[in-house]
Amino acid sequence: MTDATPSTSGGITYASAGVDVEAGDRAVELMKASVARAQRPEVLGGLGGFAGMFDASALRGMRRPVLATSTDGVGTKVAIAQAMDKHDTIGFDLVGMVVDDIVVCGAEPLFMTDYIACGKVVPERIAAIASGIAAACESAGVALVGGETAEHPGLLGLDEYDCAGAATGVVEFDDVLSPDRVVPGDVVIALASSGLHSNGYSLVRAVFAAAGWGFDRHVEEFGRSLGEELLTPTRVYSKDLLALIRTEGVDVHALSHVTGGGLAANLARVLPSGVRAEVDRGTWTRPAVFDVVQAVGQVPTPDLERTLNLGVGFVAVVPEDQADRALARCAELDLPAWVAGRVSVADTPARDDAEIVQGSKGVQGGAVQVFGTHPR
User: Fold this and answer.
1) What is the DSSP-derived secondary structure letter of residue 335?
2) Which of 29, 156, 265, 294 is the most buried (most CB within 10 A)?
3) Any idea where the PurM-like C-terminal domain is (predicted)?
């Protein structure tokens, strides 16, 4: 029988197969300082353990604690970061996509883990990605309790990577935000996005690729390069929204994270059946990036609205007599906000100039109608 054991001199090693364990260890050392800042007092242990640990004894003081969890990634926005060789902001996109889904139900995000897969571990690049994740967690008051970096040679290119994350939060059962709180007469408050956030980049990249625009191209409307604009980090809302929820005299009935599917579809997910929200485009000016995407790609408006946030990253639904107080609190939090619409009963005569959106991602609840035109 032939001896299949490779010789020491010519055998295949893990390193020759494309996995550099030592580079992974260096990456961990480089990210330690960043991760140390994204902590909470409840975190037990340090970086490098097999599992992140979080002391849940504080939950004993809650009457009926409900855990909330979410997971997500960044999507094809990572292709922009790779092309620009700028990796320290993509973490805000990851954290925002995860923790801001948790706050929709009124929960406080507590801790998060991340996962980075790459074709080759470049310690400085991995550390830059992790530093952005940690900075975003710090800004959200969320502990980064662990993560994983995986080297996948042959599956991903040497300069390619992808990242994902998961987080857990908690809310009192009586404080869970659910569609049944929303009633006719409530107002819809829009919260400004920081730009494209992390959705629709397959469309955006296709538009500029077809036009032959490079990421280094200076765009007058942006006052900077195309790549810099496209890499604008996602605004992380969770900490500010928790502050809004806890504001005396403001009873938040619902929150909606405007991600894939656009404003109408995501708002419809948090409305009960029997009501319809009417949102007026005339209440806000679209940021320039959305106009440029539409003009360069000749993207039909319905497709644009079903794909991008168009300047509204989150929506809060509150009683009409509390809207001014809610807006004042948003101003204190440096969170641009405005009344964008109202909730009415579903059988109110619909407008002729807009379609009604109802049913999204398996949720058959209320309806949303977006009408009017954006100011120029």
Assistant:
1) -
2) 265
3) 184-344
